[in-house]
Amino acid sequence: MSAAAARGCWPTRDLPVLGWLLATVLVTHTHPLRARVGERVRIWVLEAGPSRSTSFHVVGGQFDTTYAEGAWLLRRGDGGAQSLALGAAQGGFVEMSFREAGDYPFVSHVMVDAERGAHGTIRVIR
Q: Each residue of 19-31: pLDDT tens digit?
């Protein structure tokens, strides 16, 4: 294992910050984020608040790394997660790779927010 891997640092490509702000969600819904099959991506998430929590989820994906508020919740090789829970004004990131091409929707599991537009798509190509 390399020194970088021992510290939990793997090569990734950061996707843009995803905040549950209307302008950001509208952009990612009309212009999907893009990734390639097998490419490892890091998705930054911010729960902008002001008072509601969220649970970020990519439909059809599994996170192998999760990080929130300065702490590793899950490191690559230790299992998998389906969502990243964040309180108001908290942030973090998830890392994952996609095995197949296609469109992968992402949502807030606070479904009222998802129905109001807090959702988007990651388009994975070969």
A: 444 334 444 557 7
